[in-house]
Design brief:
The chain is of the alpha/beta class. The chain contains 9 helices and 8 strands.
């Protein structure tokens, strides 16, 4: 019997499988103006990366870095960054109205510790140095509910190994979902990783620092449970 090295690079064809579904959407005049004015200073197009990338270059200084994968409309990212200004927040999104809305929130709230990247988060992570992230947040990713689409889920062994490799010792991988079957799959995958420790021993209590988004409120209204999973590289206290 052979074993799979979770640190091994994925095969070329796997790297091309999208874990996200691009969406179209209209922007308000305010969002459009924010995008035009702030993107040159605050934005990163992941498709333009060519080789290794030091995320400190985007901020102009070094600080502990939180990677937000799939920031949606940006409300949660802006709120967490405002309450946690000793760390940088790099939000990755593919939905242009969401990117524009987060930039508008950054401008409105005077946030200096937020930057926004557009494109495939996994491509960005692959370009980052190992140990460069203080935390990775994956909040309410697409559950890809059909069995034939499970290969598109972002929380699967190869992707988790990649994310974990970019975490500093003691760094946190925090996932949340309202899809019970995906939550169970996430937990199985995360607990199987040899270098991640489930500090709660089960689904985590809802952390106070994670804001309730409109998406989460809709899920709760519909009667769906919310599952948080918090794993730490090396098991340092969270």
């Amino acid at each position: 019997m052979t074993t799979t090295d979770q640190n091994a690079a994925p095969p070329a064809h796997a790297a091309r499988i999208r874990t996200f579904h691009p969406r179209r959407g209209r922007m308000t005049d305010r969002q459009r103006a924010a995008l035009a004015r702030l993107w040159p200073a605050y934005g990163l197009d992941i498709a333009d990366l060519d080789g290794p990338y030091d995320p400190a270059a985007l901020f102009g200084r070094r600080a502990p870095l939180v990677l937000e994968i799939g920031s949606g409309m940006g409300d949660a990212t802006a709120a967490m960054a405002a309450a946690d200004q000793d760390r940088h927040y790099l939000a990755v999104e593919v939905h242009t109205p969401g990117i524009a809305n987060l930039l508008d929130l950054v401008d409105r709230d005077g946030l200096t510790n937020v930057r926004v990247a557009k494109g495939d988060a996994l491509d960005l992570v692959r370009a980052m140095p190992e140990g460069s992230l203080d935390a990775v947040h994956v909040f309410f990713p697409d559950p890809w509910p059909k069995s034939r689409h499970h290969k598109r889920r972002i929380i699967q062994p190869t992707h988790v190994a990649l994310l974990r490799s970019r975490l500093a010792p003691g760094g946190t991988l925090h996932c949340a979902t309202d899809w019970a079957e995906y939550a169970a799959s996430m937990r199985e995958t995360l607990t199987a990783d040899p270098e991640l420790v489930d500090v709660h021993g089960d689904y985590a209590p809802r952390p106070a620092h994670r804001p309730v988004t409109k998406f989460e409120r809709r899920a709760l209204t519909a009667g769906r449970d919310i599952f948080d999973l918090i794993h730490v590289k090396g098991g340092a206290p969270y």
